[in-house]
Design a protein that fits this description.
Layout lengths: L5 H6 L16 H4 L1 H12 L4 E5 L8 E7 L2 E7 L5 E5 L14 E3 L3 E2 L6 E2 L5 E3 L18 E7 L2 E5 L7 H5 L2 H5 L8 E10 L3 H8 L6 H4 L1 H4 L8 E4 L3 E7 L6 H5 L4 E7 L3 E6 L2 E11 L2 E10 L7 H26 L15 H15 L1
Antiparallel strand pairs: 1-10, 2-3, 2-5, 3-4, 4-9, 6-7, 7-8, 9-10, 11-17, 12-13, 13-14, 14-15, 15-16, 16-17
Helix pairs in contact: 3-11
Bound molecules: FE2/S2 (inorganic) cluster (FES) and fe (ii) ion.
Amino acid sequence: MKNAELSTILSAYDDTVPLELASTLPAAWYTDPRILELERERIFGRGWQVAGRSGQVEKPGQYFTVEIAGEPLVIVRGSDGVLRGFFNVCRHHAAAVATSAEGNTQLFRCPYHGWTYGLDGSLKGTPDFTGVCNFDRRSNGLVPVRVAVWEQFVFVSLSQAGSSLKSYLGDLPTRIEPLNLSALRFHSRREYTLACNWKVYVDNYLDGGYHVPYLHKGLNSVLDYAHYTIENGERYCLQSSPIASAQDEFGATRTGDRAYYYWLFPNFMINIYEGVMDTNLVLPLGIDRTRVIFDFYFNSSASVSSEESIAVSDVVQQEDVAVCEAVQRGLSSRAYGAGRLSVRREAGEHLFHRLLAQGIRD
Ligand code: FES
Ligand SMILES: [Fe+2]
């Protein structure tokens, strides 16, 4: 399907087909830059996207900058305590008004010509601007985006229309509440860059443990593969496995009764073991380039060593990186068009593909 019309590529996936008959998204969806453009506009440019952690914007004046769907944003806690988000684009000549990754400030001063904005986005100062006619300061504040917080995660929505975060999440908060995530404290961040499409990484996550016995020998020692469960919500999937005890570094850091792997459409994962959580944010950098941001959290009263736990996660991640990059090469081959899905294992992947196809055609 290389060089085919975009409409041909889009119509090659049928999201009404049940799992027993379904195929994966066509290979061209992972290799054609026009698909990435559509995803930027219709998937990442709409709905709710994870932007950061609430701990980054706890106190008045605290802010962080982030890019979502190619848009530069700034998220800031106002002096009135309200959390707000704006396009990080000066209304004068479009420079970024906030230039650090994070910080604390009383106002934003654009570094280019010194215009200043309050933390509520209002335009305050415009040096050397007397004599300019028909310029309404009130309508030249920073352009807002919607911001909402669930658990320790800050979400933004680039579109003013559309559902609230609450309705976007559905019953996910009710499901996660008993796991008491607020007892976990942010520890550190790690970033990986992969030579694959972002959906390859999400697919790999959503195969219901299918690849664990083959690819992750270490992790496999602590998961009860036969009793792995997969449950789809409206926009999320929960994959869960009972934990078996093992006498290695995996056994020492992956304890408790169960492992919970939550994925929220399109690109956010929350992995929970006893006293340990990591989140994965999967960001497209290009059609075949992806950044995955791991944030590690620990319960301070847990016995698990954070360094050892992060090292174990890194082993698993390296194994996933290698296979995802191999898949991307395979997807570009003339030998491959699409593949079938395991009914036992790959229901989460099927949900992902259907949501993506519905969103992209919308
Ligand atoms: S671009 Fe910001 S003050 Fe000119
Ligand atoms: Fe994996």
